[in-house]
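Structure record:
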Amino acid sequence: MSASEIYKFYNDQNVFITGGSGFVGKVLIEKLLRSTNVRTIYVLIRPKKECDAQKRFHNIFDNILFEKLKSEQPEFRNRVVPIHGDCTTTNLGISEKDNERLKSEVNIVFHVAAAIFFNQHISTAYAINCKGTENVLSLCKEMSVLKVFIHVSTAYSNCNRPYVDEIIYDTPSKYTQVENLLNRLTLKEARKLTPKLLESWPNTYTFTKALAENLVRDKSGNFRVGIFRPGGVTSTYKEPLENWSDSNSGPNFVIRCASLGYIQIFSATHSRIELVPADLTIAALIATAWDVYCNQDKDKLPIYNYVTSNDNSLTICELFSVVCLQLRNYPSNKAVWVPNFRTVEGSPMVYFFIFCYHMILGLILDFLRLLCFQKPKIFMVMLKTQLIIKDLYYFSVREWNFSNKNVKDMWGQMNEVDKHLFNFDMGSVQWIYYLRNYFKGLRVYLMKETLEAVPEAKTRMKRLEFLQYVVHFLVIFFGISTILMLLSNLYC
């Protein structure tokens, strides 16, 4: 490790991470512990209704993602400290003791926490993505030995622009104006006014992330700051496990629902999609802190667009066509219908297909459940699924051009040891290999279905396929009968 400049940068450093219990946060913690010699990682953990902060902290390390680390470094837990708090509250809601500890010890901060649901209430999205960022920055200003602060944004923060450079774009509404307005409005009034607030942004997530970038630019203190903008972060490519993910958002949501039979038709084009595997993304994020501190001017605020289209492009149709070939090879025991997933070009006919292949199919399947004395539920699940899918259509029928000069320059600054240890070269990803195993990873790690259950699932799928033929026959039979009846009424 002596030849690794990034390893040297992190050696004996204290790191503070927000959003550590999330998908990206867990991969970041694991990689820092396994590939660097950080002294301590402080993880901000907030309690939830069903789980207190301490339990949520321990749940992080119960994940199979940490199995390799456990075998290599059994004592790694000694280097991780939970900080009970919430980034949306003043002083992050942490105790005075933890506050003083962070102020005196932290060298590097990764602000990963975010509200990631596309159409979360504007007040909630603002509180987490903007106010949370402001609160973290306020604490950072009091950290006496802080070297660098990295804000994790998204490549889609400026998705209302066809070309996205590695700069911060001003928003028509300033974050202060938005905050003042939200403070005066009730939740109902804020929801009603949301479309006007968003202007050209498609959802509250991308809008508030754009506001947060402006906030970072305006309110960062006398320390080095960088903004990291990844594309859609998907399952790991190689390490520490192939195709690991526990995220049920973006493409994962579509593919999981397709495997269960809840999605049959998806509107998409042959546009490029910005998918970035989690392990490469985290390697780039870790390298970003090093690059901001060691290679960038102190007065600059560098932006890093971490995308794939410039180096190893992949289209939406390629993604789904390859992945969905595997739905029959690793069928789910929870499927309610045969996974006949297909993508279609966006047109008015799409809505007709969606209606036929989802709403009508859902009603038929619920009718069959009633005949079997089971509670009907498929139609409502399909309806709710389509409402969520609707939010994804904006991204499935568009593509963007990104500049990623800072990412390329960072890669050029790294020596061969670092390029091996922290590989984030998207050109090295073999998409066919990755996508052929993509659903297998979702099935095992996200859907919690073992590979040993595949034979049983295949047997069950054969029964569903037989039922599919029966349903098709009934639809055709009753369709022809209806037409003949109408014709007989016309001519009699």
